[in-house]
Amino acid sequence: MLLVDAANVVGSRPTGWWRDRAGAARNLTSRMRRAVADETLPADVVLVLEGDARNGVDPGHADGVEVVHAPGHGDDTIVAIAAESDTPVLLVSADRELADRVRELGAEVVGPTWLLDRLPS
Fold first, then answer.
1. Distances 7 to 18, 22, 38, 106 between C-alpha atoms, Å
2. Residue 85: closest CA among 118, 50, 44
3. Which residue segments constitute the domains of the chain, with CATH numbers given?
4. Which regions of the chain are under pLDDT 70?
5. pTM
């Protein structure tokens, strides 16, 4: 499973995302769905949204990407998803504390650039 810390990925580039967090979430989700359709990303993708970003995309599964709305802090939701997964987890995040938490569960971690380099413009 490719597990994505959306806040960390969006926040990794100064694109003005802070002015429209919901729009940034929509854009990232759309790009990820296109990458799944193009087979650039695996079909088992979970994208975790928190805060105002949740207003940009409805939760649920569509086009190979499952969108999860974190009820509180996104990191806790990400750790819970990783802990419950019965398949290997690859987390996309540059958050060191989060990375340590999911590595303890056996997950691998890559930075936002890994994902962004695989997404269509």
1. 10, 11, 24, 22
2. 44
3. 2-116 (3.40.50)
4. none
5. 0.95
